[in-house]
Amino acid sequence: MHGQVYGPHDPSTPSASTAYLATLEGRLTADGCATRWEDWAGVPVLVGRRSDFRMRWMATKLHLFTVAAAVPEITVPVVEGFTEQVTKYAKDTKGGLPVGLQNGVGAFPVLVSDRVDPAAVRWAEERQRVRFACMTRPVVVDTSRPYVGMYRGKPALGRVYATYFIEKGSRYFYGP
Questions:
Q1: Residue 160 CB: number of other CB atoms within 10 A?
Q2: Taking phi first (over 0 means left), then psi (-120 to 50 degrees means alpha), and beta for anything else, what does residue 115 get?
């Protein structure tokens, strides 16, 4: 597995998920992301967003969205559904030129819980999800262990962005 312990805490604390999201919000802000909280069908969702342009990305601008929520339980269907929601949200709210015209979308759909099916962690760690000009790396945070599972590899499709995703993922989801 490619996951990693993200730091010490008391997993029996009922607010472990809330504390993780507060820490994540601070890390996103410190990295220059605009953050806000939204209500998605009664669930508070943290949204972080930034855009970066690199010549080495074939003169492309990448719009990176980090969307995180605490949920009662994380299973494969839950993380799959949330990943689909985040992908659509990122594409719909990106603005500017359509995806693929010298710009793309990257997303970290992040679910946090103290009840996590190990199959959901494996699903998040197995690969990056790619659609036309949109790369998504789901993140599963198990506050009971503590453990973070996400894909940290360099896929063939979107390889030029892999180091960026690995660096941002390490900065946002793991740490002291």
A1: 14
A2: beta
